Batch of 2 targets.
Target 1
Amino acid sequence: MKCYGIERVEERETWELMEPKERDRGRGDGGGESKEEEGVKMRREGESCIVSRQAQAHLGIHIVGGSYGWKIPPNRTFYGEWAKNKTFIVGDKLVFLYTTGMENVIEGSTEEDFKYCNQNDVVDINYAGPTTVELTKPGPHYFYCGVGLHCEDGEKLYINVENKNTNNN
């Protein structure tokens, strides 16, 4: 059983319960388990999937910009506001959802390059969307789009990544 797709649940991104083929099983095709047996099995598998995806949410898979994705934002503070109340920990992953050719993701190395949207000394650049970036070290991380004036228009994200063993108790 696989989990499939993305949907928003309680203001947090998570995965749908089943692949479409699995949802279609048990519609009375004349063989195998009854609809009731198949339904119970699918519910159990779905519950396992929910638990699995909730555990992943604690690992920190962040869809940058939520359902809006990675594109020129409605205002220049959009991505900062999105990140403001989130905690990013070493090992978390950022997922940038965008259309290849329309956007890209640059990881900059300095606050100054980020501030002025410079592409002189980049850590990494990704052109094919969607892009997943694993956060492998603590400290400041700077991401921005290098297409046209997208960065200048606010398509940029600053986050501070904490160590895994940070404990607030």
Note: Confidence is low (pLDDT under 50) at residues 1-31, 42-57.
Target 2
Amino acid sequence: DEVFMNAQEAVGAHRDTQGIAQLQNGRWICPNSYCGRTYKKKFSLYRHCRQECGVEPQYQCLYCMKTFKRKESLKSHSIIVHNSCNFDKLQLKQSKNTI
């Protein structure tokens, strides 16, 4: 499948993937020296670079207070761990600087 991105997303994806390399085993490695995560699919590495690598968790489960970097991960956690589809319990993590 072909993925269409707007110009801003395309520029961001290009910037985020500078220096990526494919290992001999066919896996893609994150270009950040402090990370080292590898992925089978190049798209998964792109998503990691844009949404996960070096990013503080933004979402928090109100049942157990576990934090996540991606909303999809929080939804999966809620369903699997808490047997809940009540997405009213999903929220952005509060900033430590707020009162």
Note: DSSP finds three helices and six strands in the chain.
